[in-house]
Amino acid sequence: MQLISGTAVAEKVLEECRRDIAELAAAGKKPGLAVVLVGEDPASRAYVRSKDKKCRDLGLHSIKLELPASTTQEELLAHVQTLNNDPAIHGILVQSPPPTHIDEAAIVRAIDPAKDVDGFHPMNVAKLALEDSSGFVPCTPLGCQRLLMDAGIETKGANVVVLGRSMIVGKPMALLLMAKGPGGDATVTVAHSRTRDLASITKQADIIIAAIGRPEFLKAEHVREGAVVIDVGINRVEAPDTPKGYKLVGDVAFDEVAPLCKAITPVPGGVGPMTIAMLIANTIKACKQIG
Ligand SMILES: NC(=O)C1=CN([C@@H]2O[C@H](COP(=O)(O)OP(=O)(O)OC[C@H]3O[C@@H](n4cnc5c(N)ncnc54)[C@H](OP(=O)(O)O)[C@@H]3O)[C@@H](O)[C@H]2O)C=CC1
Ligand SMILES: Nc1nc(=O)c2c([nH]1)NC[C@@H]1CN(c3ccc(C(=O)N[C@@H](CCC(=O)O)C(=O)O)cc3)C=[N+]21
């Protein structure tokens, strides 16, 4: 069993980013990222903080807008407009999900597609579907693809089952894997909460990407021997014996699934760090494209 370290691959990606950042600096440019968080969700705050810290470590310009849960749609749209017009900002991310009184689709559409480093704007979703590489691909699926490629796992002709069909992970993951070329060319099946007899489908998979948000859902009975499993899930579960009182687990029951696998990612230290690395890579791409 090969344990695929997202931490290690993310470090490689960030090393490439450092080179790009130095080149841009020589040309008098500095990529800038703005992360907007509405509300006080502790997990979201932790993610936003670690992203901000990583950006600063790398010498990126980073701003973090932490807005109260009472922020109105109009106020949030005004913040997005300001960031769209700010020449020091090349990437804008509005943390998902926002409070329920916010129309997330309208916010996403308001972000300048050239600064949409999350790849959520319809223009970028379309570019992904069209295999137009000028667009932005959502960071988490991009990170999963890079993990597979870096671990030497061939996707061409592979049966891949993507568990989950969200716009942030499952759907773009499926599009990336079915695209032509390296890291793609897979035969993709997408399963979700309405899928019948899930185990019979996942058992056929050479590669399983689990992104459903159910702690330790994927069990040994779902996985064929020799499969590769990428665990996207980040779930906080109670752990009274730990200092924080909780721990992170994935969507995969790691202890029973790992022994069956050719390769598997851990949680934490798997897909999570890759998401942040890809966010920085996308911000650099935005900076280069905007000029
Ligand atoms: N590592 C990282 O960087 C990131 C991790 N995540 C994590 O990934 C997980 C998924 O996130 P996200 O895509 O945003 O979640 P969503 O809740 O938006 O989507 C979950 C998907 O899983 C499907 N699903 C739910 N329950 C089942 C089930 N029992 N069987 C089969 N399918 C099921 C849902 O089906 P239906 O469509 O029918 O409702 C839906 O398509 C979460 O744990 C999240 O924390 C997310 C983003 C980044
Ligand atoms: N617009 C938007 N874009 C996102 O990319 C986005 C989002 N909204 N909403 C929430 C999810 C979740 N997400 C994570 C990214 C990194 C880790 C991560 O680095 N996790 C570490 C552990 C961190 C810890 O210890 O708490 C790890 O897995 O090793 C986790 C979760 C991005 N998301």
Automatic annotation (TrEMBL):
InterPro entries: Aminoacid_DH-like_N_sf, NAD(P)-bd_dom_sf, THF_DH/CycHdrlase, THF_DH/CycHdrlase_cat_dom, THF_DH/CycHdrlase_CS, THF_DH/CycHdrlase_NAD-bd_dom. HAMAP family: THF_DHG_CYH. The gene is folD. The keyword Hydrolase applies. Residues 4-118 form the Tetrahydrofolate dehydrogenase/cyclohydrolase catalytic domain. It catalyses: (6R)-5,10-methenyltetrahydrofolate + H2O = (6R)-10-formyltetrahydrofolate + H(+); (6R)-5,10-methylene-5,6,7,8-tetrahydrofolate + NADP(+) = (6R)-5,10-methenyltetrahydrofolate + NADPH. CDD domains: NAD_bind_m-THF_DH_Cyclohyd. Pathway: One-carbon metabolism; tetrahydrofolate interconversion. Catalyzes the oxidation of 5,10-methylenetetrahydrofolate to 5,10-methenyltetrahydrofolate and then the hydrolysis of 5,10-methenyltetrahydrofolate to 10-formyltetrahydrofolate. NADP(+) binds at residues 164-166, 234. Pfam families: THF_DHG_CYH (PF00763), THF_DHG_CYH_C (PF02882). Keywords: Amino-acid biosynthesis, Histidine biosynthesis, Hydrolase, Methionine biosynthesis, Multifunctional enzyme, NADP, One-carbon metabolism, Oxidoreductase, Purine biosynthesis. GO terms for biological process: L-histidine biosynthetic process; methionine biosynthetic process; purine nucleotide biosynthetic process; tetrahydrofolate interconversion. One of its GO terms (cellular component) is cytosol. Residues 138-289 form the Tetrahydrofolate dehydrogenase/cyclohydrolase NAD(P)-binding domain. Belongs to the tetrahydrofolate dehydrogenase/cyclohydrolase family. This is Bifunctional protein FolD. It comes from the Bacteria. Its EC number is 1.5.1.5, 3.5.4.9. One of its GO terms (molecular function) is methenyltetrahydrofolate cyclohydrolase activity.
